[in-house]
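Fold these two proteins, one after the other.
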Amino acid sequence: MSLRRTVYLVSLLILSFLTILYGCETLKKAKPIYSIKEYERMIVGRLDADYVGTDNCLKACHTHDKIRTYFEASTMGAQLSADSGMPLVDCESCHGPGSLAIEGITPEKVEEDKRQGKQTACNYDTLLHLESLPAGAQSLICLKCHTAHALFNVHNWNASEHAQNDVSCSDCHPVHIGADLTTKPRDTKQMCLKCHQEIGAEFSMPSRHPVLEKKILCTDCHDPHGFISEKILRKTTVKETCTQCHAEKDGPFLYEHADITENCITCHSPHGSVNNNLLKVREPFLCLQCHMGHKMNTSGGSPSSLDSKSAFYTRCTDCHSQIHGTDIPSASGTGRFIQ
């Protein structure tokens, strides 16, 4: 082999290695559509505008608007008072500086418009167009205040599945809809199912958790603002989440059901199923995915008169009733979950 060919092959090998290494490192890095600096530019507002205060904004444009009443009665509106002892929150906190929006609006113009049956309008083009901002930028406006607030569990928001799927705070918390900015627990069902329609269909199956009846809520199991667990569960594992209600299945047991002790959804569909007890597959086929079938025995210990096919196709839990675990050994002295 010539020296030139050897150098060529070595160079090609090094180049391939560097390409793979760079590619792997690139895949590991987050690739936001916009950088943080770009998001910050989006939520600053017009740099040539000044802050004029809520009173100046509202008396010019929203004197007869329900928005003012709702906002002043809301949790955030309560902070408009300088002596509230809380960080000041006003219209310009979200919409940006408003001097250009009300430029040229005088008391005389407001009165003239009133006589003509018109409502004086702001120049909304100079304010932030919140609806046109990416979901991440919309949420960042809220997170300016709420990230550090201990009463609002949003410190996991940026890593949550909702944030990663372009859900913004205002999708669930419409700020101008009324005085109560939080969604009442019993109203969360409709709010969640407007997006999670496939889950809503599962709640209509014969065996289901009673979410439609409002006996349990989506937020009983899931934290919509994000958590360290998969599927934004409120607990670290699936079992910890389920045993908040199903405590009798928690254990620990002397005889546990092997590999399913930490993950209930190995056998159960959490939202709804066509099978009894939310089972993913009907018995005995669910059990036969892991266990070999066996013939049933009579009380005397001899094989039953049933043929082998009939013996296999029955419900395993008719005999193995303590299927989640038990402290009592079976007649054989081993744990067969019979008692």
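Now the second one:
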Amino acid sequence: MSFRARAVIFGCAGLRLTDAERALFARAQPWGAILFGRNIETPEQVTALTSELRDATGRDLPILIDQEGGRVQRLRPPHWRDWMPALDQCARAPAQAMHLRGQIIAGELRALGIDVNCAPLADIARPETHAILRNRCYGTTLETVVANARAMAEGLLAGGVLPVLKHIPGHGRATLDSHLALPVVETPHAELSETDFAAFAALSALPLGMTAHLVFRAIDSDCPATLSQRMIGLIRDEIGFGGLLMTDDISMQALSGPVTARAGAALAAGCDLVLHCNGDLAEMTALAEICPVLQGDAMARSDRALAMRPATQETDLAALVDAYQKFVRSV
């Protein structure tokens, strides 16, 4: 049987799929599923859940997670390793350590049936960057961020996991937490092009990307980037990002109005996929009604991205961890 994926990514509520969730995934055929801490207990449980998600859709459903390491990691001890914040590591260790970090994370994810990781970040950390993001960044200069983000992406790919570049076109100037409020950036366009936007331009060949929920006053004073046709045009044209573009979580409070209105605006602006993370069944059911199946350019971008999804690989995690620790032992 042939399936046409819908332009949405769904979460789920708990450790296993409910009957209602299973029916929704089967009917709606979302492009992918995303896991959060509420979905994680043990390796055996996570593996069972990823199998259930694929069984429900009847295909090799892409399964995403935010496993950056540091504060944002859904897999945690005692079953999985802990990671230092990325900004701390990148300040003291070469980019090769970030490559190894990506490979190790990828090996842990693939063992669970997870094949897409929402990393790397190419946001540049600044003194004013909000604490929700700052120590998740890969550096304080354009050059450092690009080197470390490229290394992380290549490490994930080497380990069999697709990377998601975020938060396009740059979240480092945000002084508010976009989970709770809408940040506004007043920086002139020319300066953004030389700094924040340039980081993403250097990484524009990556297969998947995620937008940022913030307003760039110099370009579109009315709409956050996720909902702005001007900003999505800039992402495609000035930054040159040609990959499959998903929103950041559409239920974050930086955005306003019903989730269906937000999703419709994001798709109309040019996003390819709507990311919905909270697992609310009623919201997911409503989104399934308004998010179309992928077609045209969006389908072509999806096909290209999924063609880069590496086959399952045998990974010598112990050797990778030993090499990684040699770089960061002094940290």
